[in-house]
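Thread: Modeling a multi-component assembly for a lab meeting

Hi all, long-time lurker, first post. My supervisor asked me to bring a structural picture of a complex we are working on to next week's group meeting, and I have zero experience with this. I have the sequence lines for every component (1024 residues in total). Could someone generate the structure of the whole assembly? Inputs are pasted exactly as I received them:
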Amino acid sequence: MRRGNNILQNIDWITVLLYLILVLVGWVNIYAAVYNEEHGSILDMTQNYGKQLLWIGTSVLLALVILLIDAKFFSTFSYLIYFLTLMLLIGVLLFGREIAGSKSWFQIGSFSLQPAELGKFATALALAKYLSGIDKDFSKFKTKVVAAFIIMFPAMLILLQHDTGSALVYTSFILVLYREGLSGNLLILGLIVAILFVVTLLVNKFIVIGIIAALFILFYLLNKAVRKRLFPLIGVFIIASMYVLSVDYVFENVLEPHQKKRINVLLGIETDIRGAGYNVHQSKIAIGSGGFSGKGFLKGTQTKFDFVPEQSTDFIFCTIGEEWGFVGSFILIMLFLALLIRLIFLAERQRSKFSRIYGYGVASVLFFHFTINLGMTIGLFPVIGIPLPFISYGGSSLWGFTILLFIFIKQDSERLELL
Amino acid sequence: MNRNLSERKYVVIAIFVIVAVIFIVRLLILQVFDDSYILSAENNVLRKITIYPNRGRIYDRNGELLVYDEAAYDLLVIPRQVKDMDTAEFCRVLNISDSVFKVKMKKAKKYSRYKPSIFLEQISKHEFGYLEEKLYKFPGFYVQTRSLRKYTRPIAAHTLGYIGEVNSREMKADSYYSQGDYIGKSGIEKFFEKDLRGRKGVEMVMVDVHNRQQGSYKNGKYDTLSVPGKDLYLSIDADLQAYAERLMQNKIGSIVAIDPETGGILAFVTSPTYDPNLLVGRVRGKNFGLLMHDSLKPLLNRAIMGTYSPGSTFKPVQALIGLQENVLRKSTSYVCYGPATTPIKCTHNHQSPLQLQQAIEQSCNPYFWNVFKSIINNPKYRSAEEAYKVWRSYVLSFGFGTKFKTDIPFEVSGNVPTAEYFNKIYGKGHWNALTIRSLAIGQGEILVTPLQLANESVIIANKGYYYPPHIVEATGSPDNIIKEFRVKKKTMVEPDKFDVVREAMLEVFEGEHGTARWAKLEGVKIAGKTGTVQNPHGKDHSIFVAFAPMDNPKIAMSVIVENSGYGSTWAAPIASLMIEQYLNDTITRPRLEKRILDGNLISRY
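Re: Modeling a multi-component assembly
Sure thing. I ran the full set together rather than chain by chain. Output:
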């Protein structure tokens, strides 16, 4: 009795409220995206919004179950959960059903499950468990390698399913590692690598190497401390040049044709508003035509008449942008920002290292999804098919994000009892 | 160290905030500052559907329907929606070949796989009935209703004109038109285009990505209704027109019959002509080419574009000018030496000397040379040139040498030579009546159209005035008369001068020596004048002007039969039969009629 009371008292209601608002916003916009007069009932199970109601209901149940389970359960069984998830990821490669080129779904009757969605919280748990070990010192090389391996193993399996988007999500754990002591230079290095990649595709690679060389010479002449280290400087320059030269090769031979196209379209190298660029073009039209205050609920034409593909899943933000305009989009971004900052705040107040690391994992995964999904719909990132957390239609993704979030809410609610 | 690391949360939060700010700025640009997306969105969903109004119908003077719109069907195709289909059956239904099908399909795909394009144009109601039953078997094919001009009777093709698709020049001239619209190309279809076309309506509909209609845009706020075209009520008498065309079959020439009381044209015939239904729908292009290259030029409207010397039919005008100028009286007599007369010989055998009435009746050339000479040499005027200028203004007041500018497109003005023209040829002061003597008998430089000749007989019938000849009496309703066409035009000759000319023209039929006495109609007093026009290219043209009944004229007309010899042989009997048909509605002279109908004066070479 006292215990049940405790749960409700100690839960961070702000986070729960933000979660509920986002889920509701998602459902309303799924309804708007697929609404037509023939299927007016909100309980119509042949329509996405009807099914989403079911997913929301089951997600709330899942959340309640998690809140009732002992918080220690997750830290205790982290590795087991991680292991079972890996089994599922391997299993889906063998027995999964192929949908749109990705072999990432289990089909059980009319019900389909995407194990990659479960991989996120399982990885976050395992990473938290590993790094929170008493003897683990992140400054040690071995710890870094094992942590990287925990992250990369499920990512590789998902990559094998040809689900590049979901695999890329795992790079978001770099934020967790950064918080736990990974050198900040690595973040900057990652940024430089990404910038170099884009610049090389846009500009002739020899010009890029020339510019790098010029920068290095300038650096060498201006900085006396650097002048004593000529050879490391030359070494770094050679590595940078090699990287630039290899970008072409990687781009041409490693990426799949549709990925190359999407990148080309994004960078403006190709304009193909009927082919690879169609989605983004139509998505921008839908969002842009919303104007400042939007066209109004159920008044959007671009999403409703199917000009925007995947309008209730990956491109759900188009409906928000079209019907609610800049005002609605702004509010949505603020809601996400509030949730992310709240999660960081909660993570930092944890006494247990496990909870803190897990909390950072949750924030990082949500942040990555939010960034890539919105960036893609407004034409800032290439089209990578990952959902907008809590908003996009889909049972697996809503379940996955709910579990991910509520394990942390549960950990947080018992933060005072631990240790 | 640990404390140091917890500071990193600020870096992480900063990253979150930076991303959010970037998104907000991007959305501000997309949604608030850039309007182009609103346009693109409208382009995506809005389709403007043009509602074509029915073109106005055309009725004759008795309310008989002559031209109307009949539903025709364009077959549209949306290539993306075309599924497996029995191409062979499809081609059989449409009566097209397999290769035509492939070409058309390729063209449609090239235009768009998602948008409809016209697969086959203007399928007639008859063909459509068959197609409609089978259409369900061919997904992706749709039917759009258009209308085709339909003519109830194969008559008056030139008068009615035809419609065709607008060309780029016409579209540039009037922004009302867009590609594929129809416009009147000739005849009254052209002249009354703005009345007949009505106003197109527009319906804005929303479509989905597959171009399927999803309902009206903003509850039809931007839709406009189409307004049907105005009907036209002609002065043409369809039965008379049809009869006139029959009479002119296998002959080259024209008939223009006018109601002298209104100036309304009763029959407007050019021969050879064609069936107006030939220039409608899909067969138009082919038939137009055939008509275009026909050596007899059926597309040429001889009644307004053919110019002829008026010949003897001009003599009444000459007499009237002489009478008004007081150089001629009813009793004035001149001597005629027949073929030996100078400077103009006479081709007719008659008594001499003779007075005005006999001169008209028997078409004496020397008599009118004398009349013309006395007009030009009138001492009232200081020179021949000055007298000629007066003479010319008389002729112009009869409607010659000018256009009537009513509702007859492509009308030509003919020619009444100016004094300046003779000055240029002969030198100022170096010409006189003798120099231009051909004009005395309606030959030489003077050229008139059959319409102008018919108008001459209107003037004589009305004793000195006319209403500009026109085809359409009223638009919209029979009472809504076009007032501009009812403005009386007076000649320079006073009414009392006409009696002697009219009496003489009556004698052309009634008189013992009348040139058209063979074509006399019992019980109806017809006044007429024959003409035989020398034709440098072949046999003379037969010309006749007439009006009837003498005392209360209801019909005035001109008839020209090319290369047929004397006016009395062909043109006069045709005029007589026309008058009988119009006034009595029966033909009592079957033998005369048969001779005319059977007469084949066309030798193709």
